[in-house]
Amino acid sequence: MRGRMSKHDEGGADEPAPDFVDGETLVNFGVGKVIDSTHPEFKAGDLVWGMSGWEEYTLVSQSESLFKINHTELPLSYYTGVLGLTGLTAYAAFMDVGRPKRGDFVFVSSASGAVGHVAGQLAKIAGCYVVGSDGSDENFDLLKTKFGFDDAFNYKSETDLAAALKRCLPDGIDIYIDNVGGATLDAARLNMRRGGRVVVCGMISQYNLEEPYGLRNMYCIIPKAFRVEGFNVTGYFHMYSRFEEEMAGYIKEGKVVVVQDVVEGIGGSNRDVFREKCWEKVGGACKGVS
């Protein structure tokens, strides 16, 4: 949602979805129950998740962005996060683009966020050594005690990010799951191993800047022959069935820990709470509309 809250001029960078318009219903990913359908794959009573209006009743005309919920024994709120868009983002980015091998050294930025904490846990399942960065001491502790990261650091406490990465990953980085861009991406490039993979999932450090940070340390790509690839989850919806079954299994087995902030309602004072929880808290944020 964050990218749709900023004004983008025509002819600028391509966006995965158009800007929000004042006065119109917010449209984003959510969970609902089908009350009527003319589509052969959905029937009344089905529980689904996908792109819809954040309102009590909504009409969905683009069925390709709607998915049937198959694990109703798990909390439905999981389908707004770990079993929904952010979980699929972490899974496809790490497994398909990152192509992990057992023993790989993995770095995840914004590691306690909705994508980061899932990507880190998937890396541990794959047999990798995982380091995460975050912006608070509380989240720093959670990465190691709750999510199983091998090491972590608070980037706000570091004066030299490249040195912090060298300290935590002295042998370098095989896979970097980038959720922040900017100086952290620069520091990671300096520490990549030969043939490494940088998967750019987000640029949260850049969203509010009037002047973009720009690219630095690009010369590292040549001698180390590592790949930097942008990631857009909409190109991986075909993987959803496989992902849902695999991730639901990890959750039931206790291999993936789920953390969510749930806030009821979208009006009034909750708007400020929603903004805080979306961008500053651990795990995913979920809004309840009743």
Question: Could you characterize what this model shows?
Answer:
By secondary structure, this protein is an alpha/beta fold. It has two domains: 1-69, Quinone Oxidoreductase, Chain A, domain 1; 85-234, Rossmann fold. Helix content is 27%, strand content 21%. The chain has eight helices and eleven strands. It has helices spanning 85-97, 116-125, 137-145, 161-168, 182-190, 221-224, 240-253, 270-280; strands at 27-33, 47-53, 66-68, 105-108, 129-134, 151-154, 173-178, 192-200, 227-230, 260-264, 284-288. The strands form three sheets. It has a six-stranded parallel β-sheet, with helices on both faces. Strands 1-2-3 form a three-stranded antiparallel β-sheet, with no helix packed on it. Strand 7 (173-178), helix 5 and strand 8 (192-200) form a beta-alpha-beta unit. It is globular. It starts with 26 loop residues before the first strand and ends with a strand.
